[in-house]
Amino acid sequence: MTNEAVTGHSPASTSVLLATVGNKVRNMRKDKGMTLAKLSDVTGLSPAIVSQIERGLANPSFTTLAQLAHGLDIPVGKFFLGQEEARSPIVRKADRRNLKGVTKKAVGEAVYELLTPDLNGALEAQWIVSPPGHDTSATPFRHSGEEFGIVISGQQDIFLDGEKYTLEEGDSITFSSETPHWYKNSYEEVCVAIWVNAPHAW
């Protein structure tokens, strides 16, 4: 096989397989905190080819899959395991994915865990535990989408384009992610909050 666009004459089963492999490549890349450009660099594949594969629009050769597997530090067979396995909609507390090193928002001593099973849907929900003094003002965030947050316990200051909003237990906030924003726990108590991004931010 060669790297080529999938035409409308491809069997439905092939299209499903390519889409599944593409999703796995994208999710594994993001799990490792790699940009598309970084994966392209370590595999020697062009960013365009990597992007097409992730979107299920290319039919990669085995050599290309081997290059991707090497870049992701996984066995090639992992791309094809569990094709028929249904993903559970439940995320148990012990099975939450730690987002440290994956998303740039996961900084400092705070705990960042993924509450949604994966990033295949439109939503990304996080469980965030911020210790006293936790402050992300040095790296304001700005990206597409919308955010919702609710404080479960403690207090937290949310800054939207420099304007401060203080949330206490039970308070929630919704805003456009295009607005420069950052977070700070200026209080003596640990803050536990749930944050939801739509679409997911990483």
Major beta sheet summary: 6 strands, antiparallel
Quick one: overall form?
elongated
Low-confidence stretches: 1-10
Structural class: alpha+beta
Give helix % range.
10-25%
Count of β-strands: 9
Radius of gyration: 20 Å
Distance between the termini: 31 Å
The portion of residues forming beta strands comes to: 15-25%
Mean pLDDT metric: 83
Task: State the oligomer.
Answer: single chain
Strand order of the largest sheet: 1-2-3-9-4-7
What are the secondary-structure elements, in order, as H or E? HHHHEEEEEEEEE
Q: Helix count?
A: 4
Any overview of this molecule?
The chain has 202 residues and is α+β, with helices and mostly antiparallel strands. 23% of the residues lie in helices and 24% in strands. The chain is built from four helices and nine strands; from the N terminus they run H-H-H-H-E-E-E-E-E-E-E-E-E. A six-stranded antiparallel beta sheet has the order 1-2-3-9-4-7, with no helix packed on it. The protein has a three-stranded antiparallel beta sheet with strand order 6-5-8, with no helix packed on it. The model is unreliable at 1-10 (pLDDT under 50).
